[in-house]
Amino acid sequence: MSAEKLSFEDFRPGRRFVLGPKPVTTEEIIEFASEFDPQPMHLDEAAGRASILGGLAASGWHTSSMFMRMMADSYLLTALAEGAPGIDLMEWRKPVLAGDTLSGHSTVLESRPMRSRPGMGIVKFRHEVENQRGQLVLVSENSVMLRMRPETSA
Amino acid sequence: MSAEKLSFEDFRPGRRFVLGPKPVTTEEIIEFASEFDPQPMHLDEAAGRASILGGLAASGWHTSSMFMRMMADSYLLTALAEGAPGIDLMEWRKPVLAGDTLSGHSTVLESRPMRSRPGMGIVKFRHEVENQRGQLVLVSENSVMLRMRPETSA
């Protein structure tokens, strides 16, 4: 089964993966905010309009979590991925409002074998997510640990 | 009411806010992962043990979202906060495992009035979250926009 999965070697610099589309609903925004970020502009339409966000807006952490799911569905769930040590860059460029639809892409910037973990490599990505009006809402860069194919790492 | 809230002026460099404690349950880890990060090590104890994380481990995005809630409960919900443009730094230093309890602190690094938005300032924080064994699990830096007191911004 692993043989059919994407391994470190498949993530060559320049390779691009499509993210989304992912529609964002009022209910999802309020549900996430209620649990993790209960600030008024993420819970209530009127409070959102009164804020600098201009409407009921997803928490930035919610947008980031939806983006994670878009990466999972696009390539991580079919890859020999072992997680990420963090985020190098995360910019919430524009508010994500109820009714928006998100889409984007992940591009491999660089990849290298890990010295500390034989048989594994680290792949650095740049990610861009935009709304249905073509406006960038999220820009991110991070690195993911991926296992090599057994014949390569042996 | 606003007069009693924390404003930009209250976030002087060096001021420190306590985060947590926040216990992390198996159910929460699986619920978040099912929606946003359905990789096996975040969904299943055996898969977690077989991974480099060493057990059923929260998605990094879940840890970050729990950290957001800790900030909200500590100081953001009682402040004139207007959101954040992104994250400058986010390191997931150690896995967060089911049964862990998270706590930490946010420290103001610097604060300055925003040129582009009169009556608002931007406050940069450094955040550290550790587990019940005193191991750092999350280190982050970000900047939050906060309104000034009316008499100050007039």
Summarize the structure.
2 copies of one chain form a homodimer. Chain A is built from 4 helices and 5 strands.
What does this structure look like?
The structure is a homodimer of 154-residue chains. Chain A has a five-stranded antiparallel β-sheet. The first copy, chain A, has a single domain (8-147), classed as Roll (Thiol Ester Dehydrase, Chain A). Chain A is elongated, with a radius of gyration of 18 Å. In chain A, a hairpin with a 5-residue loop joins strand 4 and strand 5 (136-147). The model of chain A has no long low-confidence stretch (mean pLDDT 94). Chain A contains four helices and five strands; from the N terminus they run E-H-H-H-E-E-E-E-H. With 154 residues, the first copy, chain A, is α+β, with helices and mostly antiparallel strands. Strand 2 of chain A pairs antiparallel with strand 2 (86-92) of chain B. Chains A, B: Residues 15-115 form the MaoC-like domain. Chains A, B: It comes from Rhizobium ruizarguesonis. Chains A, B: This is Enoyl-CoA hydratase. Chains A, B: InterPro entries: HotDog_dom_sf, MaoC-like_dom, MCH/BMMD.
Distinctive features:
Thiol Ester Dehydrase, Chain A, 33% strand, homodimer
Shape assignment of chain A: elongated
Give the helix tally of chain A.
Answer: 4
Describe the strand arrangement of the main beta sheet of chain A, using strand numbers. Answer: 1-3-4-5-2
Q: Termini separation of chain A (Å)?
A: 18 Å
What would you give as the CATH superfamily of chain A? Hotdog Thioesterase
CATH topology of chain A: Thiol Ester Dehydrase, Chain A
Order of helices and strands of chain A: EHHHEEEEH
Oligomer: homodimer
Greatest chain-chain contact: A-B, 36 and 36 residues
The helix fraction of chain A, in percent, is 10-25%
Question: Structural class given helices, strands, pairing of chain A?
Answer: alpha+beta
**Class of chain A in CATH?**
Alpha Beta
What is the number of strand segments of chain A?
A: 5
Task: Report the average pLDDT across residues of chain A.
Answer: 94
Protein name (chains A, B): Enoyl-CoA hydratase
Domain MaoC-like (chains A, B): 15-115
Organism (chains A, B): Rhizobium ruizarguesonis
InterPro entries (chains A, B): HotDog_dom_sf (IPR029069), MaoC-like_dom (IPR002539), MCH/BMMD (IPR052342)
